[in-house]
Amino acid sequence: MAEGQGRLVAISNRVGPLNDEGKAGGLAVGLSDALKRRGGLWFGWSGETSEKGTFCELKTEVQDHVSMTTIDMSAEELEGFYFGYSNRSLWPLLHYRLDLAEFDRQSDRIYRSVNQRFASRVMPLLEEDDLVWVHDYHFFYLGSELRQCGFKGRIGYFLHIPFCPPEIFSALPASHDIVRALLAYDVIGFQTDTDRRNFVAFCIRELGGEKLSGQRVRVGDRTVVARAFPIGIDAQGYARFAVSPEAGEHEEMLHDLTRVRTSNPDADGDAWRKLIVGVDRMDYSKGLLERFRGFERLLEDYPENRGSAQFLQVAPLSRSELDAYVELRRELEEMAGHINGRFATLDWTPLQIMTRGFTRRALAGIYRAARVCLVTPLRDGMNLVAKEFVAAQDAEDPGVLVLSRFAGARAELEAGCIIVNPYNTDDVAGALQRALNMPLEERQRRWEIMREAVFSGTAAHWCDSFIDALARGADFDEPEASE
Ligand code: ADP
Ligand code: F6P
Q1: Dihedral sign of CA atoms 447, 450, 452, 455 in order
Q2: pTM value?
Q3: Which domains, from first to last, does the chain contain?
């Protein structure tokens, strides 16, 4: 804990783990990297359902100075709050997918009541000078509920996913209620300046608010700080993972797969196979179908890659109870089968997709074995995979990052990666071709630029700058980047 600042209390739907277990999700990874260093209380859902739901007993586990306290949800709460409102309404909407968003008043009601119940369960654990930090789209109302419970200390909020433009957000029946509730927080953090501007535009256009200097916005009698705080990773820790024995084993295993000379007569005489990797939760926001099409186009338009480019997509299942995710899985498996059926030879399978989880060390080894990492979401708050890939490379023979223009990480990494429009199949194929053939010197130069960004914009930096803004509260006064 920094001197003079209160205890940090983080509240999020997912809690932990703090160790190296495989866990897909940027929030858990970013927050555990930050909390491990500072200590504090982490409160949220246990991941379990029980009959008593949010009225159940609290469960607490202490690890590395972090006390992780969780509660269950009932089956009805899980359905209405998590699957329903959070992931059928808010997730698609905030990712600009109005076509997939579903709205119903039952899940709206349950979402509000779970927010209220989480607030009333955490309230007795709070101390007066705690700095409370609420995370993500599951808990828009939690701050205002804590105020109703009488909490007078500082409360901050961070949105891990994009905030869509007001033209889209206003389609949500409760859009005004949500943004008004957000105004109960003292500081509202976003991943990028685009997200922050969308939020401020909603306040102005829909709620008659006004933009003040110093990244503040006023609506009625409430003034809040709204600022971008791009999340990062523990880059040094991740670089150490990448040279661990477990990473080494995975790297070696993949090298064995790629240390094969291609039998394709179109390929360069002495070409070895080159590995392309993608690592994403199986989510429609990640642009996986479009990415597969891009890879297929690479094999069509640049036939020298047949037999020599090997694509490994790690895609752990996520939210598999929801129709949109079931459908996506079906389409991806069909497309992978189609590409393999069309191009495979007796000694080469072009595309491999696997849904299993890996430890963070094992994943670091996979990144290190790759010549190219494809990170091509259609929309993404930040995307920590892009930063992990950079941190895992070595200076001698670094891989190339191909990154979507719609990922939050673009703002920090664009000077070193190849930017693509994930909707443009030719663009993805062309970028892959360029990345696979990039000379060593250019790879090293580009990687140095990205390395600098990833090692300066860490999880610790993210956490400290948010906490600093929260501790300063109304005194916060910082010019906008473009002001
Ligand atoms: P999101 O938060 O939308 O899932 P991010 O890219 O920001 O996207 O974060 C994903 C996190 O999940 C990364 O830290 C990544 O390493 C981790 N992850 C992804 N796939 C796996 C997997 N198969 N096993 C373990 N961790 C994974
Ligand atoms: O980082 C975005 C995020 O939505 C987190 O809020 C979430 O924990 C993670 O992705 C994984 O999703 P879920 O918690 O629904 O499994």
Answers
A1: negative
A2: 0.95
A3: 8-232+460-474 (3.40.50.2000), 235-456 (3.40.50.2000)
